[in-house]
Structure formats: structure tokens, C-alpha cells
Design goal:
Blueprint: H1 7-19, E1 28-31, H2 35-51, E2 56-59, H3 62-70, E3 74-75, H4 78-81, E4 84-89, E5 93-94, E6 100-101, H5 108-116, E7 118-126, E8 139-143, H6 148-161, E9 168-171, E10 173-174, E11 177-178, E12 186-191, H7 198-206, E13 211-214, E14 216-217, E15 223-227, E16 232-237, E17 242-250, E18 256-259
The chain binds ribulose-5-phosphate (5RP).
């Protein structure tokens, strides 16, 4: 590992490192997308190389697939795997019930399919992702290109019906052109500030023709592992209803060891 990590990268790294404790040889794993998930993939690659960990990974994006192959993880498709033991992914926001906003990296559709096909989902995140109420992060919605402006108008109409104040919707761009997802779709970012009823909003959005999926992950995530820049890691397990803490110390070579005692 590099020695001079920024505090935010240290936070992501220790969260990823802690998540590896849940990975066992023989597992089929969903591999998330984004900068935090990339740390996980690198950590898993080290375990494959140095400790002979045997895993098969189903990536949630072409970016993650490339990285996984580069670090020596065997990559298979979801159709080959059918069902996964565990998915580990990042998130843009999580709340106290471990509901999430995802899709900041534009991979929400594959991420939701893969997470839902898993016995367990673990989110790894730095502490900036923790919120009281979801919605400060714009909610990504995947929309098919055909008639997307009509779908956008239908989304805005549905929001009026839900009494959401001051919502705006923007088409995500990649330079001068619309952003294109791995599935060939566009992303609408829904600026709401606050999502009062995330479950209802998710259901309403997915009823609109042309909307493929939205970035609200409700009742999908089981565990959130939050990393801090000083090496602390909190594990919040929704099923156990408890939070436990580990602390990692950074060594001179940039690697870490876990201090499991007080
Ligand atoms: O949902 C995602 C990609 O679609 C990412 O997991 C999310 O955007 C978090 O990314 P990062 O770890 O880079 O902050």
C-alpha cells in the first residue's frame, strides 16, 4: 500500500480492509464500484496473491471488472454465478436504518441487481457518507435514452403529487454529451435535499415508463463499515443491532495492523 495516503483514502482503506474479514475462500462475491470499492478490490487482490484466497467476483461495472482482473481476481458474470454469498460496495449516503443512496458513479442498476442477488450486502464508506435523512446527495435515476425528456417530465409530475418542495432534475453530462451507463442508458440526478419517505419515492419512481431503476437501496444493506482517517473503523450490523469498533495503526510502509484490544 502507498505510504502517503490522504485521511480520506486512509478512511476508505481501513473500511475496505475490515470488510475483507467477512470474505472466505470459496465465496462468490459482488464487487462494487467507486473509489472505496476500488480499495476493496485491491485488498482482495493482495489476499488472492499472498494468501491464496480463492474467490470469484461479479463486478458491478466495466471499471471494476478491469481492476479486478488487473489484481488477479477471477471474474465471472452474474448469470454464471446465479447467486452470491456477499456483495461489498460503497455508497453516497447511508442512514441509521442502513438505507442508501447509490449511483454517484453511475453504476446503480448493476449494483442493485448484484446486491439483491446476494445473501448479504456490506457497505464500506468514510464517515462523510453518514446522514440523518437521505437526500442531500442528488438521487440518481437510470432512464432509457428513448424519450428521456418525457420520462423526466413524468418524474417531475410525480414529485408534485408527492408534495416534494423545490425539487429539480438534471441530466448527468460527460463533458458536452449525456453520460452513458454500462447498459447504454442516461442518468437523471434528482435534487431533493431531503427524502422524507424513501420507500414510497423509490416505488413511485420505478412505476414511471422509461425509468429503469433508482439509486435508493431500501432494506438491502445488512452491514455498514465506516472508516475514519485516524484508522478507526465502526461496524454497524443491522441484524445484530450493534456497533463495534476496531482500530488500525498505520505502519511506516503504509500497511496497517489491527489493534483488537483496548
Ligand atoms: O454508487 C456508487 C457508484 O455507482 C458508488 O459506490 C458511490 O458513488 C460511492 O463512491 P465512492 O466510494 O467513490 O465515494
Amino acid at each position: 500500500m502507498p505510504v502517503d495516503l490522504s485521511p480520506i483514502d486512509k478512511a476508505k482503506y481501513v473500511a475496505a480492509k475490515r470488510a475483507c474479514d467477512y470474505v472466505e475462500s470459496g465465496m462468490k462475491l459482488g464487487l462494487g464500484t467507486g473509489s472505496t470499492a476500488a480499495w476493496l478490490v485491491r485488498c482482495l487482490g493482495e489476499l488472492v496473491r499472498d494468501e491464496g484466497l480463492k474467490i470469484k467476483g461479479v463486478p458491478t461495472s466495466t471499471r471494476t471488472a478491469q481492476l479486478a482482473r488487473d489484481v488477479g481476481i477471477e471474474v465471472i458474470s452474474l448469470d454464471e454465478a446465479r447467486w452470491l454469498d456477499l456483495t461489498i460496495d460503497g455508497a453516497d449516503e447511508y442512514d441509521g436504518a442502513l438505507n442508501l443512496i447509490k449511483g454517484g458513479g453511475g453504476a446503480l442498476l448493476q449494483e442493485k441487481i448484484v446486491a439483491t442477488a446476494s445473501d448479504q450486502m456490506i457497505v464500506i464508506a468514510d464517515a462523510s457518507k453518514k446522514v440523518e435523512t437521505l437526500g442531500a446527495f442528488p438521487l440518481p435515476i437510470e432512464v432509457i435514452p428513448f424519450g428521456w425528456q418525457t420520462s423526466k417530465a413524468l418524474v417531475e409530475e410525480a414529485l408534485v403529487g408527492m408534495d416534494v418542495m423545490g425539487a429539480t432534475t438534471s441530466l448527468r453530462m460527460n463533458g458536452q454529451a449525456p453520460f452513458i451507463t454500462d447498459e447504454g442508458n442516461h442518468i437523471l440526478d434528482l435534487h431533493l435535499n431531503r427524502i422524507g419517505n424513501a420507500r414510497q419515492l423509490s416505488l413511485v419512481l420505478n412505476q414511471i415508463p422509461g425509468i429503469v431503476e433508482n439509486g435508493l437501496f431500501i432494506d438491502i444493506c445488512d452491514i455498514v463499515i465506516t472508516g475514519y482517517g485516524d484508522g478507526r473503523v465502526e461496524v454497524h450490523d443491522i441484524n445484530k443491532g450493534e456497533v463495534d469498533e476496531t482500530r488500525y495503526d498505520f505502519l511506516d510502509d503504509g500497511n496497517i495492523f489491527a489493534d483488537l484490544g483496548d
